[in-house]
């Protein structure tokens, strides 16, 4: 069976920059594993937070070094996972393309697990007004956000997008994340599925299994939209696609947390 092309917009493959790939050899192993599973493009989205300083020039240099070693299988793209802080907000508003994927507007944004600002909607609106398109990273794993479905829905209406971790949908981040990810899917609030890969063993850079799951539990069109069409739009700086989500098969758990 031939593999269908997929694009992964959230990975930690740049060696030594955060808690992802520890060294060049591990980074290359992750890239080759992803390519073997059908991923054609990967966004190198290193953490940009208080623990891991993000330097765009260093990131670009690491990308070039890895790309030279693997050819174009897969292609590696610039990006980061920006943690929301007063300082990062100010920097994004001042330099709108600095942190965005491929410098084309889409920004992978991470909220704290402990505090979600009451002014989040206003903050996101200011970013959008500056030409930034926020992609909320793994809301299903955030213990605050996953209990605020109406707020997430409002953010999507405001112009934000949502990225769910593939392994959350498969139940590997626990029941609460699995329930939330399916709820987001059923509500049509998910725009991307991504690996959030950190290594080859525990958080691997593969998407083929989640693609098969989404094709069976929802529909092939949704799988393609979340794993290829919308990620390609991000790389191109183009509008995202939307469409109906057909729930064919309920997961082994219920939505009883809500």
Summarize the structure.
The protein has helices spanning 24-36, 56-70, 86-94, 120-129, 149-158, 166-169, 175-186, 208-217, 220-236; strands spanning 6-11, 39-48, 75-83, 106-110, 133-137, 161-165, 192-194. With 258 residues, the chain is of the alpha/beta class.
The CATH topology is what? TIM Barrel
How much is the radius of gyration in Å? Answer: 17 Å
Shape: globular
Class of secondary structure makeup: alpha/beta
Describe the overall structure.
There is one protein chain. The protein is α/β, with parallel strands linked by helices. It has a single domain, classed as TIM Barrel. 39% of the residues lie in helices and 17% in strands. It contains nine helices and seven strands. The chain has helices spanning 24-36, 56-70, 86-94, 120-129, 149-158, 166-169, 175-186, 208-217, 220-236; strands spanning 6-11, 39-48, 75-83, 106-110, 133-137, 161-165, 192-194. It has a seven-stranded parallel beta sheet with strand order 1-2-3-4-5-6-7, with helices on both faces. Helix 3 (86-94) links the parallel strand 3 (75-83) and strand 4 (106-110). It is globular. Residues 254-258 have low confidence and may be disordered.
């Amino acid at each position: 069976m031939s593999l269908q092309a997929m694009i992964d917009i959230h990975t930690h493959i740049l060696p030594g920059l955060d808690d992802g790939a520890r060294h060049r050899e591990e980074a290359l192993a992750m890239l080759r594993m992803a390519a073997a599973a059908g991923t054609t493009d990967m966004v190198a989205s290193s953490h940009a937070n208080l623990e891991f300083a993000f330097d765009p020039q260093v990131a670009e240099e690491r990308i070039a070094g890895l790309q030279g070693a693997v050819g174009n299988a897969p292609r590696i793209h610039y990006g980061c996972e920006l943690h929301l802080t007063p300082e990062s907000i100010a920097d994004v508003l001042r330099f709108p393309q600095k942190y965005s994927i491929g410098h084309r507007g889409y920004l992978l944004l991470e909220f704290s697990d402990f505090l979600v600002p009451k002014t989040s909607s206003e903050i996101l609106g200011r970013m959008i007004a500056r030409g930034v398109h926020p992609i909320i990273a793994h809301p299903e794993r955030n213990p605050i956000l996953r209990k605020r479905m109406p707020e997430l829905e409002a953010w999507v209406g405001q112009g934000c997008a949502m990225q769910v971790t593939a392994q959350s949908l498969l139940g590997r981040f626990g029941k609460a994340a699995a329930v939330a990810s399916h709820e987001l899917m059923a509500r049509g609030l998910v725009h991307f599925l991504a690996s959030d890969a950190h290594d080859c063993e525990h958080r691997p850079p593969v998407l083929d299994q989640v693609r098969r799951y989404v094709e069976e539990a929802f529909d092939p069109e949704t799988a393609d939209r979340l794993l290829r069409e919308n990620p390609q739009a991000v790389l191109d700086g183009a509008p995202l696609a939307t469409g109906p989500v057909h729930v064919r098969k309920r997961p082994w758990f219920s939505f009883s947390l809500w």
